[in-house]
Amino acid sequence: MNSSFFKNKFFRYILFGLMALIFVFLIILVTRKKPVSEKEENLPSVVIQKPSTGKLVEAVTISGYVEAKDMIPVVPFISGTITEYPARAGDFVTKDTLLAKIDDAPFRQQMLQAEAAYFAAKSTFDRVSNLYKSGATTQQNYDSAKAQADASKAQYDLAKLQVDYTEVKAPVDGTILIADQAVGGIGNQSQPVAVLADLSNQVVRLKVPEKYFDLFNLDREKLQVKVTRPAEKNMYEDAVTSATIENIAPYVSPESKNFVVVCHLDEPGDRFRPGMFVKVQVAYKSYENVPLISLKARKMDGSFYIYDQNSGRVKYVENTNPPIDEENFIVPQEYADSYIVLDGQNFVFDGQKVRIFEEALDQANSQVGKDK
């Protein structure tokens, strides 16, 4: 009985082993890689292009906003009702141009009172002074009358100055950026009647990442700055001007890990205004007469493919971290005369035979013609 049991168990093991081997064999048959067909119609299509010789500039591009270097809020030195308000945003004004007029009636009344008090005190002082010179009064009376006259004169001068302050004038030449008051409003020192700026003196304050600190400080004289304001598509060309680095912060903010660089716009013209969004390109190295190809040729890992005309196959080229700009990268010199896959590189592998897109398109068009 024991012998029969062990025999049955042995046969069961053999049976299970055979079934496992058959199962593995079937999996191999189903999943094994079949040879890729290289029939013309099954080949992937690619777009190829030879590098062009040109100039490439390595640069750091940082976004920012245009600011007037000096913005001057013009506030009245007195409070009162605004009776005239000729200021208009966008107007260019010269120094001492009237921006607002505050009701001067209360201040003129105060001036008249101060004037009367002053003339009375001055008259008293003149009389006491004559008596003092003739010895008819004391030094104390003379000093008291003189002090009273001086105090009245100071009050009178202050009253006249307040009348002058009712006319709020531009302290410098400049363009009015903000003028949001109105006739009938209350002018006071807490709110400016206008904000002026010199639009020929504009800057961009850049918040530059810490990793570029040495670049800006050690190579400052070599850096070339270009400021671009993107224009509306299909309407105008981008506004572009050069800029000069005016100041580099000597420290890095521990919170943001940035440092501030102030760039002065060389020729802002009429197309740059405070508050506008701009892109600032800081070029630090340039390459002349080098083979260039569009960044579209690169894969996600930076590699690319070249095309061999003789074999019709593509060759994989590893990423060598070449210099790049916003549009192109420098092709290694050994591939300067090679065709580079510009499109379709994500659907091929090293050594694969491919078709050129133009040839594939012509073939497809001819086939359509035959079908008709």
Layout of helices and strands:
Layout: H1 2-31, E1 45-49, E2 52-68, E3 71-74, E4 80-84, E5 92-93, E6 98-102, H2 105-133, H3 139-165, E7 167-169, E8 174-178, E9 186-187, E10 194-197, E11 202-209, H4 213-218, E12 224-229, E13 239-248, E14 258-265, E15 277-294, E16 304-308, E17 313-317, E18 328-330, E19 339-343, E20 355-356, H5 357-371
Parallel strand pairs: 1-20
Antiparallel strand pairs: 1-19, 2-11, 2-15, 3-10, 4-6, 4-9, 5-8, 6-7, 8-10, 11-14, 12-13, 12-15, 13-14, 15-18, 16-17, 16-19
Helix pairs in contact: 2-3
Can you describe what's shown?
The protein is α+β, with helices and mostly antiparallel strands and 372 residues long. The chain folds into four domains: 32 residues; 85 residues, conserved putative lor/sdh protein from methanococcus maripaludis s2 fold (Beta Barrel), CATH 2.40.420; 100 residues, Efflux pump adaptor protein, beta barrel domain (Elongation Factor Tu (Ef-tu), domain 3, Beta Barrel), CATH 2.40.30.170; 117 residues, Helix Hairpins, CATH 1.10.287.470. The chain is 29% helix and 33% strand. The chain has five helices and 20 strands. A six-stranded antiparallel β-barrel has the order 2-11-14-13-12-15. A hairpin with a 4-residue loop joins β16 and β17. α2 runs antiparallel to α3. The longest helix has 30 residues.
Quick gist of this model?
With 372 residues, the protein is α+β, with helices and mostly antiparallel strands.
